TrEMBL record:
PANTHER family: ACETATE COA-TRANSFERASE YDIF, CHOLESTEROL RING-CLEAVING HYDROLASE IPDB SUBUNIT. GO terms for molecular function: transferase activity. Pfam families: CoA_trans. Belongs to the 3-oxoacid CoA-transferase subunit B family. This is CoA transferase subunit A. InterPro entries: CoA_trans_fam_I (IPR004165), NagB/RpiA_transferase-like (IPR037171). The keyword Signal does not apply. SUPFAM superfamilies: NagB/RpiA/CoA transferase-like (SSF100950). Keywords: Transferase.
Length: 293
């Protein structure tokens, strides 16, 4: 029998040190590991290197605003239907953090190489019509030894820790991520340690998850943080919608360079995720389930 890996968001991230490289799951306003991100911010972790999915959103912007980020691999960071990500934009323009210019192919194939323990992956001459290799010197060209043609090489991306949000996980860490399947499974395999926040934890006597529905196998998961509404104010497919009111509040404060007020209200004024839920209240949270339906 495998050990019970269930813990709290706060305990799950307690061992992440300053300077760690972190892969972040979630896309746009959906499935972001917000309970884990809030716990990291409360700890005051610094100098993180972030490698998010190609369509990153509020978790990255918040970590930048909290002063946690030193380096960011970025294809896109935004607030989706609410426009640009203000803190990311300010940091990029002021060069207060290091930006690794990337695109979707760079992130996806970089993680694929990392997951396969390969030094790089070759692609067709993908960037001949762009300036991306001029600003990202890790994108290089070489000769295919089999055809003699020029190919582009993408270096492996690996992370010390991967933070992902799921809808259902069992006590052994077998993780089910609902909604559109992206490539969290590949990202997780490119991480030394994998931490899951999960809305639900299967009872130990429940039938084991169908392996065909498992996004990330428990064998590579270190800990599972039981975090109902752990993606709030983002959505969790099949469970609850995004909290538009709170996202607009975040956008408006961030646009005025007042994100510290948001962090004080929703992150620092509580000690843990349970107090965060208490602060929001059952009526508001249950309303998001009704909105989803």
């Amino acid at each position: 029998m495998s050990a019970n890996k269930v813990t709290t968001p706060e305990e799950a991230v307690a061992g992440i040190p300053d300077g760690a490289t972190i892969a972040l799951g979630g896309v746009h306003s959906h499935n972001g590991p917000m309970a884990l991100v809030n716990a990291l911010i409360r700890r005051g972790v610094k100098d993180l290197e972030l490698i998010p999915t190609p369509s990153a959103g509020p978790p990255v912007d918040m970590l930048i605003a909290a002063g946690c980020v030193r380096r960011l691999h970025v294809s896109y960071v935004g607030l989706e239907f609410l426009g640009m990500a203000p803190n990311y934009r300010r940091a990029a323009e002021s060069r207060s953090i290091e930006i690794v210019e990337a695109d979707e192919a760079y992130i996806v194939y970089g993680f694929r190489a990392g997951a396969s323990r390969l030094p790089f992956l070759p692609l067709p001459a993908l960037y001949e019509g762009t300036d991306l290799p001029k600003v990202n010197k890790d994108i290089r060209s070489t000769t295919d030894p089999y055809t003699g043609k020029t190919v582009t090489t993408i270096p492996a991306l690996r992370a010390d820790y991967g933070l992902f949000h799921a809808q259902v996980t069992d006590r052994k860490g077998n993780t089910q991520i609902f909604g559109q399947r992206r490539f969290e499974d590949v990202m997780a395999k490119a991480c030394e340690h994998v931490i899951i926040s999960s809305d639900e934890i299967l009872d130990e006597y429940a039938p084991a998850p169908d392996p065909r529905l498992v996004s990330i196998p428990g064998a590579i998961v270190d800990s599972v943080a039981h975090a109902p509404y752990g993606s709030h104010p983002l959505s969790s497919p099949g469970h609850y919608a995004y909290d538009r009111e709170q996202l607009v509040e975040y956008r408006d404060l961030a646009a005025q360079d007042r994100t510290k007020e948001y962090l004080e209200k929703y992150v620092f004024s509580v000690n843990d995720h349970q107090e965060y839920l208490d602060k929001l209240g059952a009526r508001r949270l249950l309303g998001l389930q009704q909105t989803f339906r």
